[in-house]
Amino acid sequence: MDHFPKGAQSIGMGNASVTLSEPWAIFNNIGALGKAPSEIVAIAGYDHRLGLNELTTLAAGIILPSEKLGTIGIGISNYGGKLFNQQQIGLGLAKQLGLASLGIKINYFQTNIEGFGRSARPIIELGGTAELIPDLFFAAHVYNISRSSISKASLDYLPTVVKAGISYRPSQNLMVNIETEKELQSPPQFKAGIAYSFEDKLWARTGISSQPNNLYFGIGFKPRRFQVDYAMSRNYLLGFTHHFSLNYNPSAP
């Protein structure tokens, strides 16, 4: 299903991304977008899971800050191959309100199955993040709070995913994230990740997750207007998955 976290920064930390206030929050937690950088940023990403084209995800988006409204985000993604694929386009809004950043996003989610036709349904997301004490952040997010089904005629629901986590950032160079995620029909998943930067230009990341058990590694490089991230995850049974993402900030010096 096309509800996985997106962006190699997130994936390099074991998908422990609910607290990250960066442009990919348009996919990972709309509520965190209120604390994102206050400039226009364009993003694009590519996930090639387990070496199979049928499990590939393409994603792109744009972040548009507004002094009156907050931060507006638009995201679009495509998952799957010829026989089964899903597309999602969403419009989100997040705003900083005191210590908290809160957001809402509305998606148009389409599923195509060869031989069975096409269906499309709306999906609503809610999320938020707050700095509890200096250097300690808390965030939560609900995907498909509307409990939308695959189609009007189907009794099968699209996943409803609830996640919450904390992030400890004792310095600008170090971040430690812990997160739990629960899909209504699946066991809870635990995720943890660490990121360390070298002079704010080069990042090294690693993480773990359970259900299933995966290891994650990633690097990031930020030369002026661009941020380039790569992550690799390894499932102990199925093998490796590669993730690439790019952020572009045209107003950066």
Q: Which shape, going by the Cα principal axes?
A: globular
**Order of helix and strand elements from N to C terminus:** HHEEEEEEEEEEEEEE
Main sheet: which strands, in order across?
1-2-3-4-5-6-7-8-9-10-11-12-13-14
CATH C-level class is: Mainly Beta
How large a portion of the residues is in β-strands, by DSSP E? over 45%
- What is the count of distinct domains? 1
Cα-atom radius of gyration: 17 Å
**CATH A-level architecture:** Beta Barrel
**Fourth CATH level, the homologous superfamily:** Outer membrane protein transport protein (OMPP1/FadL/TodX)
- Number of E strands: 14
Uncertain segments: none
Largest sheet: 14 strands, antiparallel, barrel
Instruction: State the distance separating the first and last CA atoms.
Output: 38 Å
The secondary structure category is mainly beta
Helix content: under 10%
At the third CATH level, what is the topology name? Porin
Count of alpha and pi helical runs: 2
